[in-house]
Structure formats: structure tokens, C-alpha cells
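thought: fold this chain, then report.
action: predict
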Amino acid sequence: MRLPKDVLALDYTDVLRHLSLHDEQVVAVEPSQLRPVLDPKTLALIRLAALVAAGGAVPSYGAQSDAAVDAGATAAEIVDVLVGIIPVVGLPRVVAAAPKLALALGYNVDEALGIESG
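observation:
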């Protein structure tokens, strides 16, 4: 999608105003198409936090954790995000997300605890 130059040059107040009006040109823009403010690693970690907050599906954890690792995040940093959002999203949401995120990072919590699946 080719965007008008004025959309790509928006500052944060313009973006907030356009989002408030549900301006389709701005809503359809990927953050990477706007003037970069957040680095890819930070954006990937934020997306993981949002996924936890939204109660995302298991496959989404794999995709988002892969994106974070590809952007340079370590597994420890990813887990720090999980712990860091407890005061905002609540412990039950994080507890529900932890095994999904663990699997995405290649760690089976159930297996480690000796819990049989099935």
C-alpha cells in the first residue's frame, strides 16, 4: 500500500488525532512505515505484552516471540515483560499466558513439572 507523504510524516499528536477519528489511512499503516521512534526489539516486546493482555491464542505466542527474538530480544527479556505487566493485566492473565509463552520459547512447563498431557 502506497501512503501519502503527509501520513508518513505525522507526529504523535497527529497520529493520536487520526486514530481517535478512526482515519483508515493511519489505522492501516504499519508502525514501521511511520517515522521510526521505537526500535524493532521494543516494538516486538510491546506486542508480546499486548498479546498477553488480550489473552491471545497459542500460535500467536510463537509468532510474536519469534519476532522478538529475531529483533534481538533474549528469552530473559521476554519473561521480564511477562513479569513487568502483572500490575497492569493482573496475575491470572499472566499465569494463563506463561505456559503458552514457555512453549513458544521451547520450554514445556508441564513436562518440567511432571504433568502428563492428555
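thought: worth noting. The chain has two domains: 1-37, 40-113.
final: C-alpha cells above.
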